[in-house]
């Protein structure tokens, strides 16, 4: 690994310190009195209960058990102008919000144009977060 790649890797790690150490399932968070996660920088992030209930209303019980929260919106160096979402339940949520959900074509991963990010974040401000990645 070159010095430049090493520096870039460290910088990406630094700007991703806002990411959670662990991502509980939606079902686990709904069961908490104060739904929250510990972030990599040691601080705590709290989720709005109303937002968790909204997510639950979009999904069946099986998907609520598998959806990891917060949903990670990946900003990648590989796909300029797009963001990626991974996980069947997470993609389903994003597709429903964007009115693009097709039950006959459920995907494990999807790319979306970056201009849609504000729409997602407006609907899910506490249950989504950005991750910056290099590929």
Set down the secondary structure blueprint.
Blueprint (H helix, E strand, L loop, with lengths): L2 H13 L10 H5 L5 E3 L5 E3 L2 H10 L2 H6 L4 E6 L5 E5 L1 H10 L11 E5 L3 H7 L4 E6 L2
Parallel strand pairs: 3-6
Antiparallel strand pairs: 1-2, 3-4, 4-5
Total helices: the number is 6
Structural class: alpha+beta
Query: What distance separates the N and C termini?
Result: 14 Å
Contiguous runs where pLDDT drops below 50 for at least 5 residues: none
Instruction: Describe the global form.
Output: globular
What is the element string, with H for helices and E for strands?
Answer: HHEEHHEEHEHE
Mean pLDDT: 92
With strands numbered from the N-terminus, the spatial order across the biggest sheet is: 5-4-3-6
- Largest beta sheet, briefly? 4 strands, mixed
Strand content: 15-25%
Q: How many runs of DSSP E, i.e. beta strands? A: 6
Oligomer: single chain
Report what the structure shows.
The chain is an alpha+beta fold. The chain has one domain (3-133). It has 6 helices and 6 strands, in the order ααββααββαβαβ. A 4-stranded mixed sheet has the order 5-4-3-6. It has a two-stranded antiparallel ribbon with strand order 1-2. Strand 3 (71-76) and strand 4 (82-86) form a beta hairpin. The longest helix is centred in the N-terminal third of the chain and has 13 residues, at 3-15. The model has no long low-confidence stretch (mean pLDDT 92).
